[in-house]
Write a structure and sequence with these properties.
Layout (H helix, E strand, L loop, with lengths): L2 H14 L4 H17 L9 H13 L4 H20 L27 H10 L3 H13 L3 H6 L5 E2 L4 E4 L8 E4 L2 H13 L23 H15 L5 H14 L4 H8 L4 H5 L6 H18 L17 H4 L1
Antiparallel strand pairs: 1-2, 2-3
Length: 311
């Protein structure tokens, strides 16, 4: 069987399933890499070949997350050949055949870093883009695709259409985000383009700014301020700040557009202020219900941190 024909059919299958253009492009690119490496017909591939492909990716120093993405795609491709193309073959990618990944905590900015960063952003367009990430939790792709008709100034809402996983959601505009967004929209009112954020200089002036264009802007401000920050760091910062302000976890999940609450729960690990407040609130109740076991603990049970407790 010609691999290119099978990949072409698989592309049409993904489109029929209403996968996003970004997902289709990534899957086809990965299968293209695999097909250029594979030296035998696809129906003859076995675990031996996929293990060798794993070694090939490792030799080229691909990151574990990238390798896992490759194997997830290849596994899904063979499942399609078996289930939909009715090919009498065995999937050469074993189920759950993945590299172990580190589980780093989400990075966020401290309050003073947020202040320093936005003091350096004088361009109204850039400030509006990054304020939507910081205050509304938008992803960089969602900022790039935002259209003027998705903004409801009266209700102070933004409608996020076709977010990650093709999900729609509503987010809300804080006073500072609303103010800077209105200022930018006043400056770009001459433009007929539906997309909100546009290129301001060069041959593409007036065209929608790309995801990479937005990322380059945050990289510029990161270098200028000396603060390690990315677009996603701003989204993480919003989630952490809301959690520290005692917002419910399910509320943050809804605002961020997470499918699973477990994804949102990772912010609990870095939300030290909330953990600290919850601890002292609970431990004071415990102290009030039990006898003091330290001479420096007041009779009413109010928690006092001493050197002996710390040690």
């Amino acid at each position: 069987m010609e691999l290119t024909d099978a990949i072409g059919r698989y592309r049409r299958f993904l489109k029929r399933r209403n996968c996003s253009a970004h997902t289709v492009k990534n899957y086809i690119n990965i299968l293209g890499h695999f097909s250029s490496w594979l030296q035998i017909p696809i129906e003859e591939a076995t675990i031996k070949e996929t293990d060798a492909y794993m070694d090939h990716l490792l030799r080229h120093r691909k990151k574990p997350k990238t390798i896992n993405c490759h194997f997830s795609c290849i596994h899904a491709f063979y499942e399609y050949l078996i289930e939909d193309d009715r090919m009498p073959i065995i999937n050469p990618v074993r189920t759950h055949y993945r590299l172990r990944l580190p589980n780093p905590l989400p990075k966020h900015l401290r309050n003073e870093q947020v202040t320093t960063l936005f003091k350096e952003i004088n361009d109204t367009r850039d400030k509006a883009m990054f304020m939507l990430m910081l205050r509304c939790g938008l992803r960089v792709e969602e900022v790039a695709r935002l259209t003027a008709d998705a903004i409801d100034y009266r209700s102070r809402q933004l409608y996020v259409f076709n977010g990650k996983g093709n999900k729609d959601r509503v987010v809300y505009l804080s006073e500072d985000a609303l103010s800077v967004l209105q200022s930018y929209m006043q400056k770009r009112k001459w433009a007929k383009e539906k997309r909100v954020f546009l290129v301001q200089k060069g041959p593409l002036k007036g065209k929608p700014i790309s995801v990479r264009g937005i990322q380059k802007r945050i990289e510029y401000y990161s270098q200028k301020t000396g603060i390690q920050v990315s677009c996603h760091h701003l989204r993480h910062t919003m989630a952490t700040q809301l959690l520290n302000a005692d917002a419910a976890l399910v509320t943050i999940q809804d605002l961020l557009g997470h499918s699973k609450i477990t994804t949102t729960q990772c912010y609990c690990k870095v939300s030290n202020l909330k953990v600290q407040r919850d601890y002292y609130k609970a431990i004071n109740v415990v102290l009030q219900r039990t006898l003091p076991i330290h001479e420096n603990v007041p009779e009413k049970g109010k928690m006092v941190i001493t050197d002996s407790i710390i040690n």
